[in-house]
Design brief:
The protein has 283 residues and is an alpha/beta fold. The chain has one domain: Glycoside hydrolase/deacetylase (TIM Barrel). Strands 1, 2, 3, 4, 5, 6 and 7 form a seven-stranded parallel beta sheet that branches. Helix 3 crosses helix 4, helix 4 runs parallel beside helix 5 and helix 5 packs parallel to helix 7.
Length: 283
């Protein structure tokens, strides 16, 4: 079994600074894939950039937390505020999504609106993933898979990160055992849902524990230790932090992640360890 890698960036469309970084990382670095926040403040700018980069694969980055909705509050009053912003309380939202059927109906309506808005861009929909990996929640996963089927989409991110690999290369990484067990449990449920639906995903996913801090020093240690199979490495680059990015992710280091993606030794590192870059279409 060979080791193959997909290198992607989340939050395309969040801000012009994120879009700039994604374009730079694709043209000058190793980035092959971007995940579009279709309701983001800079979504139109992202779409224009994507259309002038035909080799950039673009997926839908569904937002149901810490971001903007497509639909106005009048249509989904239980989900967003007057500014169309979803809340940030993950646990509370998860409970509401599970027990409140009215919220679930509005959630499905909004997710469908995000799919449909993406379709109208004319971009090819490459794959699906969800902001903050909220599709680990079984209710959201069920809706995402159902709507993906309606749009004949077969590829979805499975945020399955091998903690042992991270521990072996970076002892400073904060790996909470309780949280890891919960994520592992939710991942197993999601993996079963994906397989049952006949959808495809990568074997491994890196970027959860180091989210916002994917420095080249860490990547240098990670690449030789990648497990067998197909791995996705996802980043959050930006040329600088402004606006909503600074508000929602003040601790992230997006400039350093952009430096990582454009590091001149990155392609050589992959070649030295026999790791082949791929896209979603290769799995």
């Amino acid at each position: 079994m060979t080791r193959k890698i997909l290198i992607s960036a989340d939050d395309f469309g969040l801000s012009v600074e994120v879009n700039e970084a994604i374009e730079i990382a694709h043209r000058q670095g190793v980035l092959s894939t971007a995940n579009l926040m279709i309701a983001g403040d800079a979504a139109e700018d992202a779409i224009i950039r994507a259309k002038r980069m035909p080799n950039l694969q673009v997926g839908l980055h569904v937002v149901v937390i810490e971001g903007k909705s497509i639909l106005p509050k009048s249509e989904i009053p239980l989900l967003v505020d007057e500014n169309r912003l979803f809340p940030s309380q993950q646990l509370k939202m998860g409970i509401n999504y599970f027990f409140n059927q009215h919220i679930r109906r509005q959630l499905e309506k909004e997710i469908r609106a995000q799919f449909e808005t993406f379709r109208k861009t004319g971009l090819a929909l490459d794959h699906i993933d969800v902001h903050k990996h909220m599709h680990l929640h079984p209710t959201i996963a069920q809706l995402i898979i159902k709507i993906s089927h309606d749009y004949r989409l077969q590829r979805i991110r499975l945020p399955k990160e091998p903690v042992k690999t991270l521990r072996s290369i970076d002892q400073t990484t904060n790996l909470d055992n309780t949280n890891n067990l919960l994520v592992y449990y939710w991942c197993k449920l999601l993996e079963e849902q994906i397989k049952k639906a006949g959808m495809k995903s990568f074997d491994w996913c890196f970027g959860l524990s180091w989210c916002g801090h994917m420095t080249f020093d860490r990547i240098q240690k990670l690449i030789p230790s990648l497990p067998q199979g197909n791995s996705e490495l996802f980043f959050h680059p930006a040329t600088t932090k402004t606006g909503l990015y600074n508000q929602l992710m003040p601790q992230y280091e997006p400039e350093k992640e952009l430096e990582t993606l454009c590091h001149p030794d990155f392609p050589k590192l992959l070649q030295e360890h026999g790791i082949h870059p791929i896209t979603w279409k290769n799995i």
